[in-house]
Amino acid sequence: MIIIGLTGSIATGKSTVSSLLRSPPHSLPIIDADILAREVVSPGTYGYNRILSHFGPTTPDLLLPPSEDSKHNDSSSRQARPLNRAVLGRRVFGSSPSRQRDRKVLNSIIHPLVRLAMLRSILYYHLRGYRACVLDIPLLYESALDIFCSVVVMVAVASPELQMKRLRARDTALSPQEASDRVGSQIAVGEKVERTRARGGRRGKVVWNDAGLEELDLEVRRVMGEVEQEGGGLVWGWWLWGSPVGAVGVGAWEVWRAWAARRKWEEERGRERARL
Q1: Are 95 and 181 in contact (CB under 8 A)?
Q2: Exposed, middle or buried: residue 176 (CB in 10 Å: 0-12, 13-18, 19+)?
Q3: At 208, which helix (H) or strand (E)?
């Protein structure tokens, strides 16, 4: 099974590309990390209780206000109220040491739960006979999940100004500083593009989204055409589906190659920084 890791930076158009991949002619199943991240911290879950335990005592407005119905329902409890994602975002986004520590704690709670949910979804689509699926993960490189992907598709824009403009247009409630904090909390677009290209032409693809939807659709079709041609063909895909041992062996080989490429890039990056 071809596991396509779809990533990008905030406001680069990753969600639009995900929608294109879900629709004909691609019609690929999408495993959306953002949706899973919401599900694993929904009220009453293990992740929800962990977040309440750590952040609740120092964040009074961590939960959304009670709804009108719940105000008149004596059985409703504090634990039944969803997390206030805007408040939690202000707590963890930013470059200060305290916010970086809080973001690390939050990621340590959510990421393992999301990974487990992803694994279940991948297994489901594999057993259903799908030849490929898409892992839609904004923090693909930050969470080191790129090593589990057959190919990474990075959605990028060449202009940081365009990225900020799209972010402010998408979320008008964000102040300029809040928008800057959210962009700064992720690896820069240029660095993600470099990391994607360092995987090699077959295992790393860049989709540029500096123009309109029509041009983006053409870019996606171009990239997916390359993925299909380089993925081994239908015979190879069906053989792996029918051979669990072969699938495990090929999967292990792909993970090792991705890990080696990631390590090589990090070592080269470290040497470059040491020379500065």
Answers
A1: yes
A2: exposed
A3: strand 204-208
Closest CA relative to residue 262, chosen from 155, 146, 156: 146
Amino acid letter, residue 142: E
How far, in Å, are 6, 113, 154, 195, 205 from residue 201 at the CA level? Answer: 16, 31, 12, 12, 7
Query: Could you write out the DSSP letters of every residue in 31-79?
Result: EEHHHHHHHTTSTTSHHHHHHHHHHGGG-TT-BPPPPHHHHT-TT--GG
Q: How many CB atoms lie within 10 A of CB 1?
A: 20
Distance CA 7, CA 141 (A): 8
Helix (H, G, I), strand (E, B) or coil at 137: coil
d(CA 75, CA 84) in angstroms, rounded, equals 21
**Local structure of 160: helix, strand or coil:** helix
Distance from C-alpha of 124 to C-alpha of 83, rounded to nearest angstrom: 29
Any idea which residue has 């990056």 for tokens? 269
pTM equals 0.80
Residue 114 tokens, joined: 């999301």
Cβ within 8 Å of residue 71, ≥6 positions away: none
| Cα angle: 183, vertex 186, 191; to 5 degrees | 105
Helical residues (DSSP H) of 128-201, grouped into ranges: 160-170, 176-184, 189-198
Model confidence over 20-71: pLDDT tens digits? 999 999 999 999 999 999 999 999 999 999 999 999 999 989 999 887 665 5
Q: Please give the Cα distance from 67 to 21 (Å, whole number).
A: 37
